Amino acid sequence: MTNSAISITVKLFAAYQEAYGIPELVLQFPNGTPVSAVRDRLITEHPELAKWRDITRFGVNLIFVEPDTALKDGDEVVLIPPVSGG
After folding, report:
1. How far apart are CA 1 and CA 53, in angstroms?
2. Domains of the chain, residue spans
3. Torsion angle defined by CA atoms of residues 38, 56, 43 and 9, in that order, rounded to the nearest 10 degrees
4. What are the C-alpha distances in Å from 41 to residues 10, 54, 72, 85?
5. CATH topology of domain 5-80
6. Cβ pair 77, 11 in contact under 8 A
7. Looking at the DSSP assignment, which residues form a beta bridge with residue 16?
8. With bands split at pLDDT 50, 70 and 90, how would you rate the model's confidence at 86?
9. Is residue 32 scored above 60 in pLDDT?
10. Which of 75, 12, 5, 69 is nearest to 45 (CA)?
11. CA-based end-to-end distance of the chain
12. For residue 3, what pLDDT is reported?
């Protein structure tokens, strides 16, 4: 596996979208980065998101995945924090 950079689209919902104020991000990561690293990077940029670290679910290309799922170039990532009803 090469160490080339990949480009992914991150769809933001709920607390993540509130933190960034936009509906999606395009980010670069090394090839093979686990999807959990996307969440960790967003928490680094917006520490107020840390409370969602352990309860965020991950989707890649509209499929729920485990946190250690490796990303590929062009993937669409969704971070899904718990959403309260209302």
Report:
1. 28
2. 5-80
3. 30
4. 12, 14, 17, 27
5. Ubiquitin-like (UB roll) (3.10.20)
6. yes
7. none
8. low
9. yes
10. 12
11. 46
12. 63
Q: What is the pLDDT of residues 35-70, one digit of tens each?
A: 999 999 999 999 999 999 999 999 999 999 999 999
Q: Is 58 exposed, middle or buried (0-12, 13-18, 19+ CB in 10 A)?
A: buried
pLDDT tens digit sequence for 64-84 = 999 999 999 999 999 988 776
Q: Quick one: which of 79, 71, 73 has its CA closest to 19?
A: 79
Tokens 């890649």, residue located: 60
pLDDT value at position 2?
54
d(CA 35, CA 76): 10
